[in-house]
Amino acid sequence: MDEKARILQLRDELHQHNYRYYVENAPVISDQEFDFLMHELQDLEARHPELFDANSPTQRVGSDLNNEFETVVHTRPMLSLGNTYNRDEVADFWQRVSEGLMGAPFQICCELKFDGLSISLHYEEGRLVRAVTRGDGVQGDDVTANVRTIRSIPLQLPAGGDWPREFEIRGEVLMPWSSFDRLNKEREEAGEPLFANPRNAASGTLKSKNSSTVAQRGLDAYLYYLLGDGIPGDGHYQNLEAAAKWGFQVSKNMKLANSLEEVYEYIDYWDEGRKKLPVATDGVVLKVNSLAQQKSLGMTAKSPRWAIAYKFQAEQAETTLRQVVFQVGRTGAVTPVANMDPVQLAGTQVRRATLHNADVMASLDLHVGDHVLVEKGGEIIPKIVGKAETDNSKFKIQNSKFKSEEGAGEQCSIFNVQSSISFVDRCPVCGSKLVRYEGEAAHYCPNDTGCPPLILGRIEHFISRKAMNITSLGPETVDDYFHRGLIHDAADLYELRVKSEELRVKNNSNNSEDDINPDGSSLGSGADESLFSDALAPKLNPVNASFSKILASIEESKKVPFERVLFAIGIRFVGEIAAKTLARYYGSMDKVAEASKESLMQINGIGEVIADSVIGYFANPVNRAFVERLRGYGLQMEIGEQQKQAQSDKLQGQSVVISGVFQHHSRDEYKALIEQHGGKNVGSISAKTSFVLAGDNMGPAKLEKAQKLGIRIMSEDEFLSLIKSEE
Ligand code: IVH
After folding, report:
1. Closest atom of ligand 1 relative to the 303 alpha carbon
2. Pairing of β 255-257 and β 220-227
3. Which ligand 1 atom lies nearest to the CA of residue 251?
4. 23-68 pLDDT, tens digit each
5. Which residues line ligand 1 (CB under 6 A)?
């Protein structure tokens, strides 16, 4: 067999194995055999680039190329469904359908409502050609490259199937609980923000700019709607059965109902049964089964008359409120958290719930001992949504039956019952008076140089990737160092090498004089003794691989450009962009520190809030001393020579869209160049766009839009000579 034929054969075989593994859950070969065939195909494809096929099973791993999503108009609008939480409205729906069909018999296809994001897949000649998100229902994002990595979506349907030459199938992309839990665990370990629920995680993933990220995240898809001319028959249920035969993952839990009672049975069964499913569902969808009847019922402006979604109530449980504590987060935001008697809710035991902020707390009017309703909605942390109807806590307390967990006296309990629990006005950690910024719901502790959670937050911000990029140092280690007193602020990181060296020397000498130091302390006398325990010594040994990596990245951070240092020092409201603007405008830390409010406010993009914050930051001697220490350790306190020279205002006031793939610089580099020359990089083309910096393969939709609006398309070379030209 020649290599071309073998490639085709392998692709075909691997498509089938994928289907058996990811859709049927019934593989017929081992993972190892699968990998073996995959490697063979990869090798052959590498030798025959001319036979590249985006739908080859090898493409499931995605690529590191940046995806830029093209907007695509849906062939048929993607409507949403009317929603109800009310069982009577299900009966109303049945009645409306019956009347609409003038009493003719009908069947309702009952399905699970998957909680992900809808996707439209287009197939031509059995091949996946396009995958588009719902978007606004009229047009969505072309996410084909990302969707290709979802293994339960067939890229090529098996030959000989009775699928139409061209059709569309819609369904839901979701992240199974197992992938979601794994992803959040990884993110927690990496100190990254967690996804609130599988739907957010799936949607964030599908919109990822990098399809290899998508490939690793374990997305899945269920298909539930077949459209197009020439689809098999009149029955929606039967059509999906056919689609399942072609290789699509279709829910096995659909059911045809012949009466309203059967619909209710389905709802009741799955309200409980869904808790055991591997994916999140939030209700059931009821659809008239006959396509002809669907057509005769038609649509309202927003949704079809032939279908409705019945949403399950978020799971709730009833328990007793015992105490409200106030937590101070890393940003200084103070969150009220309820401690309650433990109760089972959505598969886990819950004893804490958030009360969000002062306004929510006030509206709930809570007292210790209240019976409350707790709900697990889309968020990770359960919340108290109100008082339970059975709340008779006051009666109980008046009879002195209630005792708080801390054993607080009866008097205190009665006092708490009479007045509702109020929000604190001082920081529970450091005692500072809390502030509430205009337009924000949260109260904040303003003591960012003296309150431990805020200091930790500042250190974490300082080391983060977009700031000083000392990412070999994770939040847990920072916490550990801080609590042991090794570091008190981010500047102390630059002393770690010296400190660890001292520790090593002292530890070595102690080890050789065991009897002199019987208590096991490893350092000399003084306060440091308790900080540098023996347990810590090996960890802080520069020979220790992970510690030496930390030291290396701390050292490396001294080269980080000034604009990121300015971002890293944590001036409230000075984000990445404002820091860049300030750095480029003033050129040095000293100039920023000396700037007046008037001077700051005349800069494009710097408003009063930022200006006040910058002034306030440098007015605080603690902050000034911190910055001086950083200077002493060798951090960049002014923009680089090259940058000074490379700057101009040739693109002043211009909005530039970047599109396509480039030869000479990366997209990020072009973005930086545009900004260095006074321009602004914007995401989408509008009448205000000055020009499009276009590389190869600029998306056709963008091109068309630019042409329509008469916007100049500039090539990479043209752009580079423009910014290099002498004025
Ligand atoms: S049918 C015209 N079936 O729920 C009918 N939708 O608001 C189109 N969904 O946007 C949808 N599971 O994202 C249908 N079995 C199912 C579904 C389902 C989840 C989602 C879908 C849609 C939304 C309805």
Report:
1. 2
2. unpaired
3. 15
4. 776 777 877 778 788 889 988 988 888 888 888 998 877 665 556 7
5. 79-81, 111, 113-114, 118, 134, 172, 224-225, 285, 304, 307, 309
